[in-house]
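Below is how a single chain appears once it has passed through the pipeline. First comes the sequence as given, then the structure the pipeline wrote out for it. We keep one example in the README because the format questions we get most often are answered faster by looking than by reading.
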Amino acid sequence: MIWLIIPVRCFTCGKVIGDKYYIFKERVEKGEDPEKVLDDLGLERYCCRRMLLTHVELIDDIMQYRVY
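Resulting structure:
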């Protein structure tokens, strides 16, 4: 199981983007141009594009630590 901490909404405008991350990631890994993928997903604002393009998956690193 893969755990991601992708925000559900864009921090700036509030548009729902969390449901688009998996689609974006799969298509870019297959070799598609990120610009075209973002256009197809309907993400036209720079703020929403930033949320997907700059996301870094850190959950694997964080899960090594325990909170007591």
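The radius of gyration is 13 Å.

See the next section for the split statistics.
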